Amino acid sequence: MALDKELLEILVCPKCKGDLVYKEAEYFLICNACKLKYPIQDDIPVMLIDKAIKIDKS
After folding, report:
1. Which residues lie across from 23 on neighbouring strands?
2. Are 13 and 36 in contact (CB under 8 A)?
3. φ, ψ at 51 (rounded to 5°)
4. What is the pTM of this model?
5. What residue ranges of the chain have pLDDT lower than 50?
6. Which residue of 20, 25, 28, 34 has the lowest C-beta tally within 10 Å?
């Protein structure tokens, strides 16, 4: 199931308040500014900074 478009429009990164990119295939919301990805579990975005996964683009 896809996330609701209205929900996606109001969600922001809890760390920097920046925009998030929805990666439907990976089931993550990604903050490119913070290099963090927030998991989506049971169709609910987990917007906790301590649960975010760092994106390592070395």
Report:
1. 28
2. yes
3. -100, -5
4. 0.88
5. none
6. 25
Distance CA 14, CA 47 (A): 7
Spatial CA neighbour of 13 closest among 43, 41, 40, 36: 36
Answer for the pair 55, 33: CB distance below 8 angstroms, yes or no. Answer: no
Closest CA to 29 of 53, 1, 58: 53
Tell me the sheet residues that pair with 15: none
CB of 29 closer than 8 Å to CB of 11: yes
Q: If you search the block for the tokens 């089931």, which residue do you land on? A: 27
Length of the chain: 58
For residues 51 and 39, the answer to whether their CB atoms sit within 8 Å is yes
